[in-house]
Amino acid sequence: MAKTILGKKIGMTQIFTEDGVMIPVTVIEARPNKVVQIKTQEGEGYRAVQLGFMDLKENRANKPTKGHFKRWDAPLKKYLTEVRLEEGEEYAVGQEVKVADFEEGRKIDVTGTSKGKGTQGNIKRHGHHRGPVSHGSKHKRLPGALAAGTYPSRVFKGNAGPGRMGRDTVTVQNLDLVKIIPERNILLIKGAVPGARGGIVCVRYAVKAGYPDDVRLAVKTEYIEEEEIIKETDLAVSEEAEIEEAPVEAEAEEEAKADDENEAEIEVAEEPAPVEAEAEEEAKADDENEAEIEIAEEPVAEAPAEAEEEAKADDENEAEVKVEEEPTAEEPADEEKE
To answer: For the whole model, what pTM was predicted?
Structure first.
């Protein structure tokens, strides 16, 4: 269970450290607490123990109180508190809880009854602001308006106003347990311990910060080391698994690669030549053959120069023929002479 003990607030004092630093502390006298009742899961529905503090005279106890302690064969105690048990914890009736069971330097929570302050105004009780202090304000420390008149025509419940202040159960968390004096049942606590002198307080390990800085650091360091060991172990296991799986993966990759190559060869062998490419080549070849045939059948066009020379030669031949056929002019003259 979380270490818990009932004690009595004695007052305040101060102590000095080895370095000469003064520490103000509250003195708590915590005489041994006795286990007066044990609650079980079968009986009460949960596991807990009841601790008793300070002896009670028999003539001060009524019959129900005497019956409660008689049932558990426990001595009469004036103040009682209950502490829940964790799994596996076992206590016996009459067992004592002492200040020696606590550790110096731990953070603790202290529960007690705060000082009663009687009836107080809303400024002291709730920290409200005061009104203006100029001449004629008439409400320097008064509560002021509480509600509208038409609607809701009443004051809502829970409004902060004047009333009884103090004498409430208060828990102050994360105080420092500076020193323990086992032979005198004394706890020296640094911080605001609730209650007046002579009040009963309940001291327990802090719920939110149960360890001092050095202890928390040691626990954190140990936790980090454990995490590193776990990580190293996981890394080694993963490397071994990778080493074991590497040949299998390599073989699988090689087989997959060989299968891909075989599939590619089969596709190349089975894939027919592209029909479109063959059709284009055949059409091109047909066009070339037709062009050659046309060129062979088409008469060769004579060059313009050769045509002109042939025409000129023909003209000359015709002229020569005409000259040969035309009778000469000398012949008539000769005939005339004759």
So the answer is: 0.59
